[in-house]
Amino acid sequence: MKGTRRWWALGGVQLAVLAVGLDLTVLSVALPTLAVALHASETDLQWFSSGYALVLAAAMLPAGLLGDRYGRKKVMLAALALFGAGSAACATAPSAGAFLLARLVLGLAGAGVVVMAVSALVVLFDPEERPRAVAIWGAANGLALPIGPILGGWLLSHAWWGWVFLINVPIALLGLVVGLALVPESRAAERPGLDPVGVAASGAGLAGVTYGLIEAGRNGWGSAVAVAPMAGGVVVLLGFLLWERRLARVPGGRPLIDPGLFGSAAFTWGVVLVTIGTLVLVGVLFAMPQYFQAVEGRDAMGSGLRLLPLVAGFVAGLLPAASIARWLGSKLTVALGFGVLGAGLLAGSDTGVGSSGVFVAAWMTGAGAGLGLLFATAASVALSELSAERSGVGSAALQALKNVGAPFGSAVLGSVLTSTYRTDLPPVALPAAEVAAIRQGVFGGLAVAHRLGSAELAASVRLAFVHGVDTALLVSAAVAGAGMLLALAFLPGGPARRRLPENRGEESPCRTLTSRR
Asked: What is the pLDDT of residues 151-205, one digit of tens each?
């Protein structure tokens, strides 16, 4: 595929990625409304988010396998159609159980969309153009962060709650039209085996780790419901890797993932560094919306608007990433991104109850710029190691490991914030139920202060919470520093523009898109 057609195709695919991202961020705003409309319990609300995350994690590698085996365009179009149907089912769900089932369908569809979108970067673009394509992919992911709460908050304030989900249907339909018209079909020239053991083990392991991390964020790291699934998931994933290595040695064996892929320092450390960046990003997104609402008194829509500097910085870091990488090399560019991110977070750790909006916007813009720079470059380095032949499963591995960083960031940095908040709370002579509500979190504490009419208690709760936010940002800065050191130590130092073995004198992937069996 030549000319601008590829870029139009990429734009259509990334629009679908934006829809998946919006669905994730919109749900957090819609939960209070859903609790009333669907008579949902607190457990139901937790599973609306957790069920989606678990299915998304478990379906990543199978989605990549299906794309490589049967056709990536087919899988993407089927996933888009399923995503539209699932969104409509969410909007018309008559009960909490029906809504949860629709969310599980959305998780399955979302896996197909995001994996095939990354696969399209490999198939449609050569290594020299891929960094620009990665920047567009990153922008689609980044824009969903504030748009979800802003759009969701407006719709919930002015229209029926079902529109929060129905808005995805026309986006999915547009993605289907663009996909049918512009995206070429592609699949592996030699169909990969189904590897049912690998599919089951990878899905179960990723789901176990994800579930354990979600529970750690809710109940603490010492909780059995967190430790057991995490430990079990890790054991299953280790068994999966051993099985894949064994299968690769068997004559005629077709493992789900080529073990040699993780022998590439570029792919392995590119994925690791993207995951670390995701962990830090999620930590900021966990802390700052709460700060805007609890300390500044903003609503969900206002909180989303105040995330725009982070997104603006993110896009500003994405755009020049390819040029900077050509000049400095991938290693130094990723390290620079982590350095800028860490500096922004270090400045943010000085945020106080009375900090100005200009100060908060400034450090968030700087942190976003570092994130954009490191994301674009590290992802390009990892994707440069993927051939069009196995881009589906390779992209799925990148997305699966990246997505583990999200619940890990929420669990780790959420625990830091909560423990600091509780430690800094002053002792209060109140009934046990009131004390428990205050220790539960900042919003519980403010609710108690409001009921008692105590401005002093409200000020103490806000002060303790802000100290927790600052500590979480300080830990995030330390994680960014560790990412910088890992990039300098292990990431290959060559320029970001790389050439794949398959492109050296062979046909371009875009000329072998309708591969034979």
From this structure: 887 888 788 989 989 988 988 888 888 888 888 887 776 666 677 888 889 888 8
pLDDT of 254 over the 80 cut: no
Burial annotation 105-121 (CB, 10 A radius, 16+ → b, else e): bbbbbbbbbbbbbbbbb
Answer whether residue 517 shows pLDDT above 50.
no
Per-residue pLDDT of 131-151, as tens digits, reads 778 877 777 777 776 777 778
* CA-closest candidate to residue 509, choices 63, 113, 94, 130: 130
Cα(146)–Cα(73) distance, integer angstroms:
29
Give the per-residue pLDDT at 261: 74
The residue ranking higher by pLDDT, 88 or 147, is 88
**Residue partners of 407: CB distance under 8 A and separation at least 6:** 53, 210, 213, 214, 217, 282
Given this model, what pLDDT does residue 505 score? Answer: 37
Residue that has been written with the tokens 């206002």 in this structure = 302
Q: Tokens at residue 10, please? A: 């990429």
Contacts of 345 (CB under 8 A, 6+ apart): 280, 284, 363, 367, 473, 474, 476, 477, 480
3-state secondary structure of 159: coil
Look up residue 63 and give its two tokens.
């989605």
Q: Are 513 and 184 in contact (CB under 8 A)?
A: yes
Is 1.20.1250.20 the CATH number for 261-497? yes
The rounded distance, in Å, linking the Cα atoms of 20 and 17 is 5
Closest by CA position to 217, among listed 41, 32, 57, 46: 46
DSSP designation for 314: H
Q: List the domain boundaries for the chain.
A: 1-191, 193-255, 261-497
Residue with tokens 């062979």: 506
Rg of the chain over Cα atoms, rounded to whole angstroms, equals 23
Fold agreement (1-191, 261-497): yes
User: Helix and strand tally (H, E) in the chain?
Assistant: 19, 0
More confident residue, 515 or 195: 195
CB 480 within 8 A of CB 328: no
State the Cα–Cα distance between residues 356 and 488, nearest whole angstrom: 35
CATH class assigned to 1-191 = mainly alpha
Q: pLDDT > 90: what percent of the chain?
A: 32
